[in-house]
Design brief:
- One of its GO terms (biological process) is bile acid metabolic process.
- The chain is of the alpha/beta class.
- It has a single domain (10-259), classed as 3-Layer(aba) Sandwich (Rossmann fold).
- Helices cover 43% and strands 14% of the residues.
- It is built from nine helices and seven strands, in the order αβαβαβαβαβαβαααβ.
- The protein has helices at 2-6, 28-39, 54-62, 77-91, 114-142, 163-183, 204-207, 210-219, 232-239; strands spanning 19-22, 43-48, 67-71, 96-99, 145-150, 188-195, 250-253.
- The chain has a seven-stranded parallel β-sheet, sandwiched between helices.
- It starts with a helix and ends in an 8-residue tail after the last strand.
């Protein structure tokens, strides 16, 4: 029994020598995931839509890690193939995939535009499926891999005026479980992180509304909105050997928001 315990070290949490794809990691929460991986020893491949990569490049290179960028539209099948092919050309393997890229649009439900629904479902759900499917084939050959999907508090609840986002994030949980069932036999784990309300630049104006801010904060047992670093330990855990026997689950990083009424 002692030998079993001696096998466990903090190296279980190391990502040294690993290659991670994090979609949309040049901004927002994706930046936190990418920097966490770099700090844990991984090299990065970042597909991105917007052009600004200065900050994330500096943050990753500061950790002494390599990062490769590829700009384009993940809703285009040709670009998804380019992402996979380019990463394999640069690194020769893919150990970790984080399906982080996403979009949301709020509008009055009665007049919600079909084109907004289609765009949200395509990027938030369909792209995660297609990338996971293609990269899953590579991981099968490697006989190892980690797929981490990004859900939301809205994977378990519903908000008004954003139906496709709610639908897509519920779908992310189903996708995660389906892939865990299909790929588990190859030593590939598929899990999800479901962030709650985090204080970011994207929602800075929203947080200035005192009624909304109080409504959300009062429901969080932790008594505060999350910070981006609150996600970093969880993403490293799910990407590392330490989580090898966790498959098909989502961890809510929300201060307890989805546990309360």
């Amino acid at each position: 029994m002692t030998d079993i315990f001696d096998n466990f070290t903090l190296d279980y949490f190391s990502l040294k020598g690993k290659v991670a794809i994090v979609t949309g990691a040049n901004q927002g929460l994706g930046m936190a995931y990418a920097v966490a991986f770099a700090k844990a020893g991984a090299d990065l491949f970042i597909p991105h839509f917007t052009s600004d990569i200065t900050e994330i490049r500096e943050l990753i290179e500061k950790e002494g890690r390599k990062v490769v960028f590829l700009q384009g539209d993940l809703t285009q099948k040709s670009h998804r193939k380019e992402v996979v092919d380019t990463c394999m050309k640069e690194y020769g393997k893919i150990d970790i995939l984080v399906n982080n890229a996403g979009v949301s649009k709020f509008a009055d439900f009665e007049y919600y535009p079909d084109e907004a629904y289609d765009a949200c479902i395509e990027l938030d759900l369909n792209v995660a499926y297609y990338l996971s499917h293609e990269i899953g084939k590579i991981m099968i050959k490697q006989k190892s891999g980690k797929i981490i999907n990004i859900g939301s508090a809205l994977s378990y609840t519903a908000d008004k005026s954003c139906p496709p986002y709610v639908i897509a994030k519920h779908g992310i949980i189903g996708l995660t479980r389906s892939f865990s069932n299909e790929l588990g036999q190859y030593n590939i784990q598929s899990n999800a992180i479901s962030p709650g309300f985090l204080a970011t630049e994207v929602n800075a104006e929203l947080r200035k509304d005192p009624l909304f801010y109080k409504k959300i904060t009062d429901r969080i047992p932790a008594g505060r909105w999350g910070e981006m670093e609150d996600l970093m330990g969880t993403i490293i855990f799910l990407a590392s050997k330490a989580s090898d026997y966790i498959n098909g689950w989502s961890i809510s990083v929300d201060g307890g928001f989805t546990t309360t009424l």
